[in-house]
Amino acid sequence: MKTTIQTITLILGLFISSLAIASPEFPTQEPMGGKTFGHSVKHIGNGIYVFRWWVYRNFFVVTDDGVIVSDPLNPKAAKLLQSEIRKITDKPVKYVVYSHNHHDHISGGNIFKAEGAKFIGHKNLLKQLKDHPSPVLPIPDIVFEDTYTLTLGNRTLELSYFGPNHGDSLVVMRFPKEKILFVVDIVTPRRVAFRGMPDFWPDEWVRSLKEIELMDVDYVISAHGPENQPAIDPASVIKEQRVYIEDLMAAVKLKMDEGVHSPDALRKQVKLPKYEHWQYYEQWLPMNIERIWAYYHMGW
Q1: Which of 39, 90, 102 minimizes the C-alpha distance to 65?
Q2: What does the pLDDT profile of the chain (300 residues) look like in tens digits?
Q3: What integer pLDDT is reported at residue 54 of this predicted model?
Q4: What's the CA gap between 48 and 180, in Å, rounded?
Q5: What was the pLDDT predicted at 13?
Q6: Which terminus of the chain has fewer Cβ atoms in its 10 Å neighbourhood, N or C?
Q7: First to last CA, the chain
Q8: For the sheet containing 171-175, what is the strand order?
Q9: Cβ neighbours of residue 103 under 8 Å, at least 6 residues apart?
Q10: CA 180, CA 233: separation in Å to the nearest integer?
Q11: What is d(CA 260, CA 29) in angstroms, rounded to the nearest whole number?
Q12: Measuring CA to CA, how many Å separate 260 from each of 26, 201, 271?
């Protein structure tokens, strides 16, 4: 009996070890690489590739039955993306998934539409594109309200909408098996918020990030980052972004409660030394501060 128990224990130990070895580990410390203003591709594992054009990112995944592409960026970047996909596979692009309505992320779709790809986006994005049509923005073929599960070949991609935060059509995309989240604009690791925070609703941004933190996610692909930043980050960057917005809002509110109501004065007086090492701290923090002033002063 003792020998039998030892044998079973050994087999279980080997099985658990093999599972641990088989668990995907993604390159969270490796930079994207390439020229500063240029493009590059990094295979992060399991057929998932991160494509970079300048400081923009998207992903594509190669499946048994074709390719799924996220935001097609712009016509120039999309042609480069298509050529990079062709270096890896001759399978067609079957689906293009829009993250939201902002043209700088989604205006390269025609090249994949010509391949016969179907486009997916939130229902609010469909309304926006119908109200403001563009010849370089294919209308979504598939729209959804809260969640949508896309399955192609042996892969699954889950799309989730968290309400207004950055515009009112932004969705996040999750690979459930790998526990990887693709998130656009509302999480940019180690960088303060973009300039004057255009089309951001600060309170809804914080709310959305709190909800996203509850998702079963281990890794994040962010849609922005220069060539010297990793293609993929640990999920902790979601909380780091949320805490930054909360710290920014609290610091501005404190000064306003003390009687400082001039946005010009706030830009000079509010400092967040905790984030001095983040990208664009000196250039963009004053603009972030003025946006939060507008939120408290105007309710917008």
Answers
A1: 90
A2: 444 444 444 444 434 333 333 447 899 999 999 999 999 999 999 999 999 999 999 999 999 999 999 999 999 999 999 999 999 999 999 999 999 999 999 999 999 999 999 999 999 999 999 999 999 999 999 999 999 999 999 899 999 999 999 999 999 999 999 999 999 999 999 999 999 999 999 999 999 999 999 999 999 999 999 999 999 999 999 999 999 999 999 999 999 999 999 999 999 999 999 999 999 999 999 999 999 999 999 998
A3: 98
A4: 10
A5: 44
A6: N
A7: 72
A8: 147-152, 155-161, 171-175, 180-183, 219-222, 233-234
A9: 134, 137
A10: 9
A11: 42
A12: 46, 22, 14
Tell me the DSSP string of the chain. -HHHHHHHHHHHHHHHHHHHHHS----TT-B--S-SSSEEEEEEETTEEEEEETTEEEEEEEETTEEEE---B-HHHHHHHHHHHHHH--S-EEEEE---S-HHHHTTTHHHHTTT-EEEEEHHHHHHHHHS--TTSPPPSEEESSEEEEEETTEEEEEEE--SBBBS--EEEEETTTTEEEE-SS--TTB---TT-TTB-HHHHHHHHHHHHTSS-SEEEESB--TTSBSSEETHHHHHHHHHHHHHHHHHHHHHHTT---HHHHHHH---GGGTTSBTHHHHHHHHHHHHHHHHHH--
Residue type at position 224: H
Q: Match 């996040």 to its residue by tokens.
A: 172
Do residues 4 and 207 touch, judged by C-beta distance below 8 A?
no
Task: Give the pLDDT score at 24.
Answer: 72
The pLDDT of residue 124: 98
Taking the C-alpha atoms of residue 62 and residue 50, their distance in angstroms, rounded to an integer, is 12
d(CA 34, CA 125): 33
Q: Which residues of 210-245 are buried (b: 16+ CB within 10 A; e: fewer)?
A: eebeebebbbbbbbbbebebbbbbebebbebbbebb
